[in-house]
Specification:
Two copies of one chain form a homodimer.
Chain A: H1 4-11, H2 18-24, H3 28-33, H4 43-64, H5 70-81, H6 83-92, H7 103-107, H8 114-132, H9 134-144, H10 146-150, H11 160-169, E1 176-184, E2 191-198, E3 201-208, H12 211-232
Antiparallel strand pairs in A: 1-2, 2-3
Helix pairs in contact in A: 2-8, 4-5, 4-8, 6-8, 8-9, 11-12
Chain lengths: 233, 233
């Protein structure tokens, strides 16, 4: 098992309150098996870390996407802090290597169980917030989460066809259809071209190697165009 | 309708970015009916305010109740930021008086609809956070929410009998019963005394004007005693 000193050096943050860092990496099963040590487990830090993540991510999304409506921001935030995403962050940081768990939990594979790994990430953020403050958390997430937001990692969860439909239906029912304009090339290297038609009017054209990606591309282009029109109106 | 100047004087906070305050009190229906004004509606601020409330309340609970386990804190936080609670805060501050909504929404009673009133409170907090910073929000909530937490307003949602049961069952199954020791007085002024018995051992005594409040009181006393034992062990 690696030491928390090594972790702090690696992430270049030296915790003023190292006991909190230790607590963030201690599971209740370890506390129960080592009562004489009087350790604390991470659960209360996880409670706090959850809210710290919620705010720092919300704040980033709010400023990063000044034109996106609340519904899209809410979906994107959910994708950034869902268990699956937390597991990815925790694994990239190898947080499991520092986790103190009881023997029973260890034998049951607890160290790598998704729900626990996600918990450690939240507890770790909670400890960082208490020991170093929210600006330190923000700058840390600027390495761990925000670049993924910029790269569109979480947009895959956004479906432009659905987003477009939501956008257009704000003002009531509307008819949306996609027409295939062309389909070329051999089976392993197809190229599709589709046209988006809204209430009978052609709106945009999308291209892609499958019908689906071509439709998504047409929807994304139309959405961007509507949003920029609203912005400038 | 009252002016936002009046609101700022009353709460003794002068917004550096008054446009944000205005946005927090503007409904989408108003924006739609007054397109030429180019106003923005509150929804994005509500997205942000929701997360600001979550963190400031979590932080307060974390420090205020250093001995409470995560599960209890999570329940208490949910009670503090649920729609019903937000409506109470908003009404105490008369926030509806400042709300700009469209005519249709006004005629439909939107100004006093709970979901909208709760939204305004969150948007108002979002605007305060952006304009004045998190410390200002914290100090504002120190007048609006935190005293209610201290007064036990949200504890009514906590049921000590259930909390005690959860606490005791951490270490496996256990038998819990309440025995009536005495029942005195006339029908309109009863006094009950009950004894809590855990695994056959008497633990605590509670008194109350109904059997239920006497049981809650016994459970609360036992819970406090167990928690302080754990703290000192």
């Amino acid at each position: 098992m690696k030491t928390l000193k090594e972790l702090q050096e690696r992430i270049q943050i030296s915790f003023k309150q190292e006991a909190l860092l230790e607590q963030a990496f201690t599971h209740a099963s370890y506390v129960n098996e080592n009562r004489s040590k009087g350790s604390k487990h991470y659960e209360r830090l996880e409670f706090l870390g959850d809210a710290v993540l919620e705010l720092t991510v919300s704040d980033y999304l709010f400023n990063r996407f000044p034109e996106r409506p609340e519904g899209q921001l809410t979906k994107l935030r959910a994708a950034c802090v869902c268990e699956g995403a937390l597991v990815v962050y925790a694994k990239e940081l190898n947080l499991s290597d520092y986790f103190r768990i009881g023997r029973g939990e260890e034998n049951a594979g607890g160290r790598t169980r998704d729900a626990l790994v996600a918990d450690i990430f939240e507890a770790f953020i909670g400890a960082m917030y208490l020991s170093e403050g929210i600006d330190c958390v923000r700058s840390f997430l600027g390495k761990v989460i925000f670049p993924k937001i910029d790269d569109g990692t979480f947009e895959a969860n956004n479906d432009y066809k659905t987003l477009l439909q939501e956008w257009l239906q704000k003002d009531g029912d509307i008819s949306i259809s996609y027409e295939i304009l062309s389909e070329n090339g051999p089976a392993h290297d197809k190229a599709f071209q589709v046209r988006l038609v809204v209430n009978g009017e052609p709106q945009s054209i999308g291209e892609g190697r499958t019908k689906k990606t071509a439709e998504q591309s047409a929807a994304q282009a139309a959405l961007a165009s509507y949003q920029s029109q609203e912005k400038n109106s």
